[in-house]
Amino acid sequence: MKTFRIDAAARLVIVDFAGVVTLSDLRAGLDEYNQTDPQYSFLIDLTAVEEFRVASEGIRLIAKGCCSGARKCAVIAPTAVAFGLARMYEAHADNCVVAVFRDAAAARQWLGGGTVSGSGKADAVSAC
Questions:
Q1: Which of 5, 56, 65, 72 has its C-alpha lying 20 to 30 A from 88's C-alpha?
Q2: Which tens digits make up the pLDDT trace of 17-72?
Q3: pTM (2 d.p.)
């Protein structure tokens, strides 16, 4: 399940995934995002996901068309499985800058142009 919303003040598209997430859910979220203003950044929140029904090849395929334009994309991935899949997405993403975080505050700070220190940012930024 996914929820799609736009925060116009922050120039941000947010997709919250919850419950059981399939490749179709992920693809639908990315497709909706690609139809928005190219000036908006993207926040994918995997906090409420209970199970992923997605093969690694599916992650690679959607990452190849992740964003239209050179956009910033932050992924909140607090669990080990979510983090691993998000890192795979980051590694294979084309045409966008992706960063994976364990918490929402660090992800939002990075998207807003701020710096992240300490344990908030889980990994280096990947420019594709």
A1: 5
A2: 999 999 988 888 777 777 777 788 889 999 999 999 999 888 888 887 666 555 78
A3: 0.82
d(CA 92, CA 74): 14
Rounded to whole angstroms, the Cα distance separating 2 from 21 reads 8
- Answer whether 31's CB lies under 8 Å from 57's CB: no
Task: Give me the residue spans of the domains in the chain.
Answer: 2-127
